[in-house]
Amino acid sequence: MTSDCVKHWFQGTRTYLIAELSANHGGSLDHAMESIRAMKDSGADAVKLQTYTADTLTIDCDRDDFKVGTGSLWEGRTLYDLYQEAHTPWEWHEPLFQLANDLGMDCFSTPFDKTSVDFLETLNPPAYKIASFELVDLPLIEYVASKGRPVIMSTGMGSLAEIHDAVEIVKKAGVPLALLKCTSAYPALPESMNLQTIPHLADAFGVPAGLSDHTLGIAVPVAAVALGACIIEKHFTLSREAPGPDSAFSLEPHEFKAMVDAVRVTEQALGTVNYELTEKEQASKVFRRSLYVVKDIAKGDMFTEKNVRSIRPGYGLPPKRLSEVVGRTARQDIAAGTALQLELLS
């Protein structure tokens, strides 16, 4: 089982741009559907959801182990409380999938346990996404891969060994795989991104690689595309002013559109290895330097570096031939401003 979205990963000619809804639904199905429409208008290729409940991710416990530590947007909250607010109700998935498909976008999700995989299978997703935090949940990855659908896997916090173990499971299942470089901080600082890892991931594991980005702004994903990223995943919100666990590090519609536009220009600019002149470059060749007579010369006078110079435009002999010219004599009278040609030399 394959998906059209896989063509983006392997052809390498067009970056696959994923808008992550995550918790930015505001607790409202109407808000979530409005977000998907805005994603389409902003140029997203795909919508990504997250499929879990608080009970499938953790337990309702307020011991310190279950509280978010310092230095986080969610500091002090219990995991259960956070996931209770952030989760996308499962009964919303079908209308959200349908809306995205009606708009011509892919829609898929990140499952967090076997029950969510089984549920998503009823919606026939084009792919599955494995979150960075689940990279080490090898039984879950094996179960996801067993469904025969393409897998996109984030690698935040993963060592090479941990990434290798997860990759081997997916490859054993024989399904298409792409890896995403990810820095699991919310928001992430540009200096923490180490985007050079993207081509290394592709080379080390022989799969397409991209970026799951939590930085603010659009510079980092555009830079990632320049380094070869074939997938960009970015959180999307209608407004960062709206309350929600993920709003602070998400792009608003006009920002996502600006990222899409910048990525598409970057793709055009990357092009191929090519030393042929463009049509406009060919026309510009006239403005190169060439050898010109810069002082009147009488027949039989010697060419010197005072009466011949390398100047613009480019109608004369190439500058590299100056040493061949100096010391020879003029075959005829030559006026200043004449492009020097071989037939003028004796």
UniProtKB/TrEMBL annotation:
Domain of life (superkingdom): Bacteria
Record Pfam families: NeuB, SAF
Record carries keyword Plastid: no
Keyword Transferase: yes
Swiss-Prot/TrEMBL GO biological process terms: carbohydrate biosynthetic process
CDD domains per UniProt: SAF_NeuB_like
EC number: 2.5.1.97
Gene3D superfamilies: Aldolase class I, Antifreeze-like/N-acetylneuraminic acid synthase C-terminal domain
Annotated keywords: Transferase
Gene Ontology MF, one: N-acylneuraminate-9-phosphate synthase activity
Domain AFP-like: 290-346
Record-linked InterPro entries: AFP_Neu5c_C_sf (IPR036732), Aldolase_TIM (IPR013785), PseI-like (IPR051690), PseI/NeuA/B-like_N (IPR013132), Pseudaminic_synth_PseI (IPR020030), SAF (IPR013974), SAF_AFP_Neu5Ac (IPR006190), SAF_PseI/NeuA/NeuB (IPR057736)
Alphabetical list of PROSITE patterns matching this protein: AFP_LIKE
Enzyme class name: transferase
Stored PANTHER family: N-ACETYLNEURAMINATE SYNTHASE, PSEUDAMINIC ACID SYNTHASE
Protein name: Pseudaminic acid synthase
